[in-house]
UniProtKB/TrEMBL annotation:
Residues 30-176 form the Nudix hydrolase domain. PANTHER family: MITOCHONDRIAL COENZYME A DIPHOSPHATASE NUDT8 (PTHR12992:SF11), NUDIX HYDROLASE (PTHR12992). It comes from Aquincola agrisoli. This is CoA pyrophosphatase. PROSITE patterns: NUDIX, NUDIX_BOX. Belongs to the Nudix hydrolase family.
Amino acid sequence: MQRSPALRDVVLGHLQSFDVRAAGEADPAHRGAAVAVAIVDAGHGAEVGGLPRHAPWQDDAALLLTRRAAGLRHHAGQWALPGGRLDAGETAEQAALRELAEEVGLQLDAATVMGRLDDFVTRSGFVITPVVVWAGAARHLVPNPGEVASIHRIPVEEFLRADAPRLEAVSSSEHPVLRMPVGQSWIAAPTAAVLYQFREVCLLGRPTRVAHFEQPAFAWR
């Protein structure tokens, strides 16, 4: 049997052929932000396994997610990708790498950046730029207690589940709320929208758009 390409080659090839859409002229009140979609070795601490695998490289690949600290003013306790606001003069790539270092103690250089996914404008007033990063083993992760309650390596196979995404119609919007199932729980947009686009674009090579999906009411604040 012919061996499948390494995940890094698969993701990089798909990103290079993907036409990224920026948010354009957003509301001036919106603030720029970046999140790191960090591909890491599953290794010790990987969670939410036990599903049929779709490709050999999925046995040892995961995405890095966090649970936000309980004391945060906004979105406390929620699932998140490492990320935050852009500092003055920063690019999205610089901000994503800085946030990885600040939130989980992962120091990476610019050579690890693979590309971007589409901007996502949130109800809470941010234009989020997702930056895909090849983080490798990432053995020594340390949560910043002021921002992160826990760090999780979620195997990429989990985002390829047949029951993902989950769409829920809401009366307040013409577009459904998007959620991604994880184990027996789920992650809501905007994080879920980024994860779904990562699945579609980076893993499956399908140029899928997600910026139109709605977010649940608790994410509006």
